[in-house]
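Study this fold:
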Amino acid sequence: MKPESTKSPRLLVVDDDRDHLALVERWLTLAGFDVTGAESGETALAVLEAQRPDLVITDLVMTGIDGIRLLREIHRHDPVMPVIIMSGQAGIPDAVKATHLGASAFLTKPIQREALIAEVGQALSAHSSAQGGGVDGFAPKLVHRSQLMAELLGRARLVAAVDTTVLITGETGTGKEVLAEAIHAGSPRAEAPFVAINCSALPEELLESELFGHEKGAFTGAVNRHEGLFQAADGGTLFLDEIGDMPLALQAKLLRVLQDFKVRPVGSTRAIPVDVRIISATHHNLEQLVEQGDFREDLFYRLSVVPLHMPSLRERREDIPLLVDHFLRKVAGRTGRRAKRFAPDALRHLIGADLPGNVRQLQNLVEQCSVLSPSDIIPVALTAQALREKPAQIPSLDEAKQAFERRYLIGVLRAAEGNITIAARLAGRNRTEFYKLLGRHNLDPTRFRLRGANKDRRDDDEPAPDVRQESA
């Protein structure tokens, strides 16, 4: 059964048996899918260059590019695209091989219509779930496929159900606040407010007022009574981002609140009870700050009852293709245009790039490239430019040939230690032809001779041909 969607999933079916291809296309079209057919692996790769289907169904045994090779090529460019293999000739070893290479399912011909549609629906649902983040709907905004993230979300899901204090560590831009929101959404407090504040964004006086509130006239400018964020989050979750930047004096006041869960607004003499779960986050090493005397040790232990670490993109590079696709679809959804995609070399460039801003930087980069790319395929040069790298200059064919020829001649001269007779023999040319090549590239063979040799001596006492006209 086709998964519910506002847009029909696009399927690519590949089979060199025209009759069987037409039958499968008809079944899937009647089931509500948007189907494209290809009669060979070569045609399928051409289709994949022009459009990105949501799923590929391919025959295993085909002339030219067979199903296994097609599967390899698809996953070389898009490691997470679901591929279903079908075959009338394959045995158990072929099925095992296809599974190990990442096939979503293996169907034996003659294909049963109900089984085919069921496998397609299951593969699409599994892929959609992977793109959406955690299992069972937990953390849908945290797109991933890496085992590292899966393990983290498994722990976070358990923590969410228990009303305890959580400390999330990780580099800037890794998604610490998104994880905090997921924990709140998966907790019994989900219907109550989730309130977030960046502790490094405000000076100490304003931060105290924002957290605990203040009475009218408590300080200059306090013209009205103000309810603090602890009260605003009552019954829910308060997220304290960049807790490591909180001033020491305010750390002491926060510790008192965490001890008895009562807040005293600035300028007030009464304490107000609050029922708040605290989740804090930092990119600092709090243990090191404690050793330096910049963070209270007792507060550190209060906050880090359950520590969770958000990995950087360097630690989860296998998630980058999924994240890129997710962000491209978001841009397309906002603009109402068809989703663009990165060229294979551009995607490989992103996977290997240094992204100190992590997921936040990647999201901004994908949006920038999507907006600036004049075509549906985002090139590697634009990707490098967005990364603020100097784009590689692609030489012309003649320039590339000249550069290769010069490097080759230098290598031959080094191997022959500047001896023209030996160098010409290694290059498969006579002396006259070889001298012409050297003149064309302005190479002096005497510079490659061993130090101490007679630099004025010609090989075999023969004069060098006059190649001035040739090299001019």
About this structure: Confidence is low (pLDDT under 50) at residues 1-5, 452-461, 467-472. The chain has four domains: 10-130, 147-309, 314-386, 397-471.
